[in-house]
Amino acid sequence: MQDLKVLSPEEVKGLDEPRISPSQNQSEYSKKIYLESYGCQMNFADSEVVTSILMEQGYATTSNIHEADTILLNTCAIRENAEQKIRHRLQSFKPIKAKNPHITIGILGCMAERLKTQLLEEEKIVDLVAGPDAYRDLPRLLEEVEDGNKAVNVFLSREETYGNIEPVRMHTNGVTALVSIMRGCNNMCSFCVVPYTRGRERSRDLDSILKECTQLFESGYREVTLLGQNVDSYHWQNPETKQSINFAQLLEKVAQLTPELRVRFSTSHPKDITNEVLHTMAKYENICKNIHLPAQSGNNRILDLMNRTYTREWYLERIQSIRNILGESCGISHDLIAGFCSETEEEHQDSLSLLEEVKYDFGYMFSYSERPGTPAEKKLSDDIREDVKKRRLQEIIDLQRIHSSYRNQLMIGSVQRVLVEGDSKKSSAHHFGRTDNNKVVVFPKKEEMKGEFVDVIITHCTSGTLLGELIN
Ligand code: SAM
Ligand code: SF4
């Protein structure tokens, strides 16, 4: 079943379609890599690390698959349809491989980690399989394939953070960038494959994060998004001073680099987000007032089965603290799963009533997809019929759309500070940017303002986009 989300037009493209790395470092003699990336922001950030590692070894990237020596797919395994998409894509490479038998085809990321050598057995076209912690080994793996072998590295590390690798920015507008601050996840949400595909949680060292953010600012970037599966459990200890840094402290240090660099982060976990983080957000104008706080369900029995380790009441208390400390205008978004194992109609109604109670700005909504090897697959039954899942998901989406419109309408008449990210996808006569609370704003362009902060009065909206006029 297709997962559906309420997205602005600007966002739809970024999330639903793979990203193809642009051509870089082209020279007559270098071998060319074609890299397509699927899934979450972590994967897109990882592809920038992969490119950096390969370019360091003299490879070039190309956006033209027909001139590639190697095709790499950086994959997602979070839901079954994400993997199906990759399998279909592999089918489409068959004519290319038939024409050029020497081309190398490699699978990277979460699907590689989940299926390991099984992938080589099932998909004969694949030559190379590398998990998310094996990217430093890619040059060697590629050589192994050149020597006529199949190559696999799915070793999961307890230390690897790629902290010292300077990512090559590829899908960049030159204004906003992703900065990975940690990898893996120690939570065991029963539906989720991430702990098995990305391994144990580890935090990247503070100095390398600050260095990367400083370099980004110096090269013209004006916004960074600090990324992790559960950023609130960021924890790093200086090996010399033994001083420990938590997420609130990291956030403060990044915010203090310069007031002209906006800071965002994702994802927060309801059990871990602290008032210290919320107060740090309130203290610095350049920390964007927007929190992505996945709920997954509004019902306590289901939350317990999901092993989310919080209750609906706890979750709502966290929402109240966000509103109290950061104000009503703080953007709040969620993830919600429809049709988890044994979910009754009443329990589904609890998810809808959670939406009513919070009135989120935005949501990512999914129907439950059983993943092999997860606790839910082992202990629970995926017993909700597909048509029921689909109907419940649609009800959730319809309600979220109403709330997204409602929250956008509240902003009409207000003046918003917008960081201009570029031209609107629909018209080069319009700019597009984002507000502090992460709403897409489209407004008529007067002059080239990419990368600038401008004030825009909001005049109209849809459920996904604010429309406005430049002031001053
Ligand atoms: N770490 C984040 C968190 O704790 O919420 C999110 C990680 S996951 C990459 C993104 C979202 O995918 C989850 O929040 C969940 O809603 C959804 N998801 C994960 N596993 C799923 C599954 N088996 N079926 C449907 N949706 C799933
Ligand atoms: Fe998956 Fe839960 Fe970890 Fe998020 S917190 S990545 S949903 S196990």
Automatic annotation (TrEMBL):
Reaction(s) catalysed by this chain, per the record, are: N(6)-dimethylallyladenosine(37) in tRNA + (sulfur carrier)-SH + AH2 + 2 S-adenosyl-L-methionine = 2-methylsulfanyl-N(6)-dimethylallyladenosine(37) in tRNA + (sulfur carrier)-H + 5'-deoxyadenosine + L-methionine + A + S-adenosyl-L-homocysteine + 2 H(+)
Assembly behavior: Monomer.
Q: Which residues bind [4Fe-4S] cluster 1?
A: 40, 76, 110
- Cytoplasm as UniProt keyword: yes
Q: What does the entry's cofactor note say about binding and number?
A: Binds 2 [4Fe-4S] clusters. One cluster is coordinated with 3 cysteines and an exchangeable S-adenosyl-L-methionine.
The record, for PANTHER family, names: CDK5 REGULATORY SUBUNIT-ASSOCIATED PROTEIN 1, MITOCHONDRIAL TRNA METHYLTHIOTRANSFERASE CDK5RAP1
Per the UniProt record, the lineage of the source organism begins with: Bacteria, Pseudomonadati, Bacteroidota, Cytophagia, Cytophagales
Limits of the Radical SAM core domain = 171-407
Family recorded in the similarity comment: Belongs to the methylthiotransferase family. MiaB subfamily.
- Which residues take part in binding [4Fe-4S] cluster 2? 185, 189, 192
Known EC number: 2.8.4.3
Alphabetical UniProt keywords: 4Fe-4S, Cytoplasm, Iron, Iron-sulfur, Metal-binding, S-adenosyl-L-methionine, Transferase, tRNA processing
Requisite cofactors: [4Fe-4S] cluster
Domain (MTTase N-terminal): residue spans on this chain: 31-147
- What protein name does the entry list? tRNA-2-methylthio-N(6)-dimethylallyladenosine synthase
* One Pfam family matching this protein: TRAM
Q: Which Gene3D superfamilies match?
A: Methylthiotransferase, N-terminal domain, tm_1862 like domain
TRAM domain span: 409-472
Give the species this sequence originates from.
Aquirufa ecclesiirivi
Instruction: Kindly list the places in or outside the cell where this protein is found, as annotated in its UniProt entry.
Output: Cytoplasm
What is this enzyme's class at the first EC digit?
transferase
